[in-house]
Specification:
By secondary structure, the protein is an all-alpha fold. It has helices spanning about 35-40, 40-55, 60-100, 105-110, 120-125, 130-145, 150-155, 165-180, 185-195, 205-215, 220-235, 240-255.
Length: about 260
Amino acid sequence: MSKIPYTGKTPGARQPQQPVSADPLQGTESYSPEHPLLEDPDALAVRLVESEDFLRRNKNLLLGVLGVVVLAIVGAFAFYTWRTSQNEKAQAAMFQAVNYWEADSLNKAMKGDGRYVGLESIASEYTGTKAGNLANFYAGVAALKQGQFKAAADYLEDFSSDDLLVQARAYSLLGDANLEQNKYKEAADFYAKAADHNANEQFTPGYLIKQGTALELAKDYAGAVKAYDRILTDYPNSFEVNEARQYKSRAEGMSGK
């Protein structure tokens, strides 16, 4: 149970003892209670008067601060409303683009069909919306299929997802885009990110195979052996085990071991 602090007016309250000085010429020492405003009603009254005076003297300042706060709230609400409407427009535009993407009509998916805009426009015009973010992923995959590897990397770098498996897949696709540009070390780094992002037995071994292959192309055979070893050690029941064993032997041979 919490204790209600006693004041000097509270029945049964302990009255503070005035300590006596050892030197009679100094008189008594001043008493400093823990809660002076509770102990001294007069001090409380003075403090209230001071507060009222401060409010009168600074009324314009306080109103200005209040106005800023209100404007910030209104601005945030307006931005949220605008962002919601933008996302709805982007979602509607995405519908036809994704249909073309799934039908492998990649040019229409990317550029649009004259009536509906394509993934390129959605990604650039609706930046910051969920649909615009998703458009980057679809556009990145489409660009990869079209052999536009630099564009694919640009789109995929602008994509992010809270879904761990989807984000890992995006990292792997970034690895593919860099590998096709002969950026083997960068590709290996993205494959490593894919492998470490929510590591699991279903997908991680495949990403590690890609990492090892990219490291071999970068002539980092020791690094490749480590990637293959991780499959053999951490995922011995995966489908990639036999591949990993063969590739490890090849990498060890190339490193002179």
